[in-house]
Amino acid sequence: MSIGKDSLHSLFETTFGKASNVNYYFCPGRVCLIGEHLDYNGGHVLPTAVSLGIYAAVSKNSGNIIRCKSQSFENEVIIKLSEDIFPKNEDPWGNYIRGVVSYLQNTGVKIPGLDIYFASNLPHGAGLSSSAAIEVLTTFLILSETDEPIDLEKISLLCKDVENDFVGMKCGIMDQFTVALSKPNQAILLNCDNLNMSYVPVDTGDYKFIIINSNVPRSLTNSAFNTRRQECEQALAELNKKFGITSLAEATFEQVNSVGQDSPRKRAIHVVSENKRVIEAKNVLEKGDILRFGQLMKESHQSLKEFYEVTGPELDSIAENAWSIDGCIGARMTGAGFSGCCIALVKNDHIESFKETLGQRYLSQHPTPLSFHEFEMNGGVRTFQKQKFT
Ligand code: ADP
Ligand code: MG
Q1: Any residues with CB less than 8 A from the CB of 117 and at least 6 apart, and which?
Q2: What is the spatial distance between Cα 299 and Cα 308, in angstroms, rounded to a whole number?
Q3: Which of 31, 71, 153, 252 would bridge with 119, disulfide CB 3.0–4.6 Å?
Q4: Can you tell me the distance from the alpha carbon of 85 to that of 74, in angstroms, rounded to the nearest whole number?
Q5: In a mutational test of the pocket of ligand 1, which residue from 36, 67, 77, 93 has the highest number of ligand atoms less than 8 Å from its CB?
Q6: Mind listing the domains of the chain with CATH numbers?
Q7: Residue 172 and residue 334: Cα distance in Å, rounded?
Q8: pLDDT at 271
Q9: Alpha-carbon distance 264 to 165, whole Å?
Q10: Cα–Cα distance, 362 to 216 (Å, whole number)
């Protein structure tokens, strides 16, 4: 499904009435090609923005309020700009908007009254970072509407703070960075320890990345994500005491194998091996060795299953079935795990048969059908007036 400017405009006017001066913005979701659960462990990640994302139509209103409607949710969100802003448990999606508005106000931005309509073709709660997309999109459009300077790195950091401290989800920086800073046909190699980043051209030749959504929802805030984080902190504290290690991803295999308790040791083994895979993945992409990239995807999934224990039955079934289907040279879970999505690398002329075979096999083992999304890599958050996005 593509969402063009015209349909966005009529959705806006149906909700808020006629407006002469409407601006349009888009923020993509992202997939992590490889490098999972490394962003809060000081490792490297290799994500890219996808062409699925969230669209916004925005117009200034004459009140001192922000009014938002999202096509994906029933309730309208209203924020009074003259009052203190707090999270509301009963209104989860509004909290991303409230958090951004509140944190921008704290930095001194004078936010005018705005009507905002959101429409999306990015599944939410599926590990494709719709949360980062809604945060970065809202921040970007508010700064654009107020003619404030746009610094995409600063926007990412503010949005991460919103998600960590206002929404209460202890994610790392990868998602916000990727949806804000991606460039067309490039992945981002991000060192999450010092935020150094470089762009890596992605040319998959005869192959294409495909997103496979298990359509099994999860709620990350309440899931094992925070436990994994604590286990990594525990491993790091022990390694710091013994060897002076300050970033888990920098430890050696010998060092992580010495961690006393089982769970922290297993998490640390994944972190160290995955970090090595990301560096190799960047090198093989640069060399155009796409077959080796596919193998690294498979090794990554196996490590996430065995050592990080975040894959779950649906994602294992998708990845493990995919590996054996003609034309597929690699597949892995992407995102935080616990259901959500996988990504597969499939030969162009096998894509249709791949989808059919995998969809059928999966359905013989699980009740909910898969959905498949092909995507382009068109870059990060942006404004648009004329283009149509697909
Ligand atoms: P993910 O980031 O993997 O999609 P999260 O649970 O982190 O999953 O974030 C999903 C939440 O982000 C949704 O439950 C909703 O609150 C918010 N969100 C995502 N997309 C939209 C949208 N189009 N409109 C409004 N809120 C959205
Ligand atoms: Mg999220």
Answers
A1: 8, 11, 12, 15, 16, 56, 57, 58, 68, 69, 70, 71
A2: 13
A3: 71
A4: 21
A5: 93
A6: 5-201+378-383 (3.30.230.10), 207-375 (3.30.70.890)
A7: 15
A8: 98
A9: 25
A10: 13
Closest C-alpha to 60, from 184, 183, 182, 144: 144
3-state secondary structure of 314: helix
Encoded amino acid at 280, one letter = E
Q: Rounded to whole angstroms, how far apart are CA atoms 219 and 226?
A: 12
- Cα–ligand 1 centroid distance for 7 (angstroms): 21
Query: pTM of this prediction?
Result: 0.92
- Please give the structure tokens belonging to residue 143: 């700064």
How far does residue 72's CA lie from ligand 1's centre (Å)? 9
What spacing in Å lies between the alpha carbon of 258 and ligand 2's midpoint? Answer: 33
Mean pLDDT over 113-124 rounds to: 96
Question: Among all ligands shown, which has an atom nearest to the Cα of 129?
Answer: 1
- Return the active site residues: 175
